[in-house]
């Protein structure tokens, strides 16, 4: 219940409590939003019952990349022939079967590229070539000239804007006059290309999304009648959201309206062509397919006029990520990206869906922890089910798809900065160096890391992580206080240990019935350094002949608890080093403590010279 004494803020679903300042701000901002109510208002769609909200995407639509036409016309520097060719070959290799290759009447480069296809071996037989033209006789003729002799299936794609603002301001025609202009163009297309058996036709009422639905329907039906659309020679009706102006549900309604009401529906391939002005081009395309669209035009990674055409890569990989085969090969997404960036001379954003440099990377601790656990579960399930990891159902949290599906490795998945936690740190050391850290050690190490990242503010690479690990655990504090271990002889009968104290005296002791770690702690106790090893963990760094053993110990001294590590080719020496390193911290803490327990961190700075190891004999 909202108290009447308390200010409220209006929301789309009623008033909610809010503070007075927010309330005042909300009454009026400086934005002149009222200017946009009429010009770009959405059209009214006469649809009362809609099926699209309950529909599901179960198969890929027909994809038509228009990078070489719509994408190209949006570039500051349109593609040169070499770039066009490389891009075209990429699209063919990825599996696209229908490709809009240009606007042959617009430029010699576009014309020549179509001729190159017509005269050469560039396009495999099963690839349909689409050429684009306005409804102008001279330009239609030139377009048809460009495709002479081509062996491939061809689509001649004719367009004219049909929305009121375009009719009034750009073309200067009312509805009837514009219909006549369009039909004249359609007749020209028929006259020049109707007799070519490998040619089909496409019509786009440009700015369909701002065209009155009844007029869009009238024009489209008139065109399919004139072109005599049949199941054998279907006509493509492409309904563009040329400038995206409304929420995606409105576009879905518009498409469903056309889908239900078009004449010759079974002789029409219903196509959509969303742009991305509101940032919802993807949603428009997906909902349009739910609403009846069978074909989608767009650009790979979404180049195109203003904010771009709909991004075909994201659309396809969205399908992939929900278990539907996109029918296009994205298994080397970085190579695709390199070619697209080269052709367009535009870089992709690091957070671009599926392909950006950072889209498979987690910096934040809880995400890293979840990913690490997800990977561990994935590997364990692969072993348990005896299946290759690449074939298992994917359940790793925060990664909607397995980066390996896109040809990416796992190196970039976890990166460490001040937002990271123990999980990410452990993951990086394990994947880069093979060092496996026990959970309690991870917690301790994460504190060291946090100090480092808080003060530097920067990202930490795996190599820096290893150095911080070495400084924190492998390098004993200075000055040295623990007697030097000069002899360590272990046999079935027992262990003899010699320690040399600072005054040069040697202390030899025998230890029967205990392991090497316990023997050393006993020997240290005899020279006054009491240390208890609470836990001992073995791991290694590196692989094969280049690997070193690492021993991690959790210890308790008189006034200090903590972790220490030792590293050596031999497991025994690594273990003894870890104990001596712990003993150094205990001795330093005893020297420093005035009472109470201190942690290893508080016991003193560690020197960075790793040659200072006091273990000599083992
Ligand atoms: C939404 C889209 O992506 S549409 C595609 C847009 N792409 C491009 O424009 C790139 C290629 N375009 C070009 O190279 C040139 O604009 C050309 C060759 C097509 C035409 O050039 P020009 O003859 O110099 O005309 P210009 O571009 O200045 O103006 C367009 C004219 O065509 C008319 N027009 C525009 N679209 C169409 C159309 N689809 N059908 C018929 N006429 C049209 C305009 O009303 C204007 O007529 P006007 O001169 O009588 O006022
Ligand atoms: C004319 C069509 C296909 C177009 O490019 C657009 O509307 O953006």
UniProtKB/TrEMBL annotation:
Record protein name field: 2-isopropylmalate synthase
One MF annotation (Gene Ontology) recorded for this entry: magnesium ion binding
Binding site for Mg(2+): 70, 273, 275, 309
UniProt cross-references to SUPFAM superfamilies, sorted A to Z: 2-isopropylmalate synthase LeuA, allosteric (dimerisation) domain (SSF110921), Aldolase (SSF51569), post-HMGL domain-like (SSF89000)
PANTHER family found in the cross-reference section: 2-ISOPROPYLMALATE SYNTHASE, PTHR46911
Quaternary context: Homodimer.
Protein's job: Catalyzes the condensation of the acetyl group of acetyl-CoA with 3-methyl-2-oxobutanoate (2-ketoisovalerate) to form 3-carboxy-3-hydroxy-4-methylpentanoate (2-isopropylmalate).
Name of the encoding gene: leuA
Family: Belongs to the alpha-IPM synthase/homocitrate synthase family. LeuA type 2 subfamily.
Cofactor(s), by name: Mg(2+)
Region (Regulatory domain): 476-618
Subcellular location: Cytoplasm
Enzyme class at the top of the EC tree: transferase
Catalytic activity of the protein: 3-methyl-2-oxobutanoate + acetyl-CoA + H2O = (2S)-2-isopropylmalate + CoA + H(+)
This protein's pathway: Amino-acid biosynthesis; L-leucine biosynthesis; L-leucine from 3-methyl-2-oxobutanoate: step 1/4
GO biological process, one term: L-leucine biosynthetic process
